[in-house]
Amino acid sequence: MTRQRKRFGQHFLTDDEIARRVVGAASISSQDTVVEIGPGRGALTGHLVACTGDLHLVEIDRELVARLKARFGTSVQVYPEDVLRFDFNQVVSAEPQALTLIGNLPYNISTPLIMVLLGQLDIIGQMVFMLQREVAVRLAASPATRDYGRLSVMVQRHCAIERLFDVLPAAFAPPPKVHSTVVRLTPHAVPRGGPVEDTVFINVVRDAFSMRRKTLRRALKRYQPDAALQRLGIDSGLRAERLSVEQFVDLANQLATTVRDR
Ligand code: SAM
User: 82 alpha carbon to ligand 1 midpoint, in Å?
Assistant: First the structure.
């Protein structure tokens, strides 16, 4: 048995029925190229190898890498790497490719990882991830709700989000302190709201939500947003959580010159 490394967010799934449901949620066919993120001791991997012959595993813990190689041999490709730095293009074998990414993600990196993956969506067909329940709620939140924030806007611009099912801490060893939720993220063919310069959009959304209690007029003060908000018919006394993804795109386009100059 390998050691449990807290810094790698290691909580291993021990409920095989849940593992089967997670893999089943991805509806994988034998032609699909699948990347499992953080396979650990192989709870999901055991089901994945039965679905496809093109399976890639990205695991940071070298002890687990050795164990995965011993168990699955040449039926998988194992990458002993940090997924935050992983170039998913290296597993693309044919064009066009729509990779399936799947994983019971280490909770400490799930949000940064999803943000990184937004930059590689051209080769991703779907992502089925087990996440901390609170993160899943924030991802799928609607405007004007408590959980709607920067993460919701950034991800919903690019992906449809489905919350599939919840998983109790008892399904893992050791059990985490939080509940989990399995989600599916499916990239939109065209990002919601239409074209916008990425850096401008990222800056406006970040700043708008940086002080949740503040109105748009105050949170975006440095862009002098009054005229732009007025042109868009948005009340400058509103808070950021009232704006839809499309309104954020419109606002970023209106503020583009000021933002770019910063
Ligand atoms: N998939 C396994 C399961 O369901 O039992 C393990 C899940 S555990 C929550 C997360 C896994 O991700 C661990 O195996 C951990 O070593 C690995 N991991 C943590 N950080 C990583 C990173 N930056 N890159 C790749 N793998 C990572």
Answer: 10
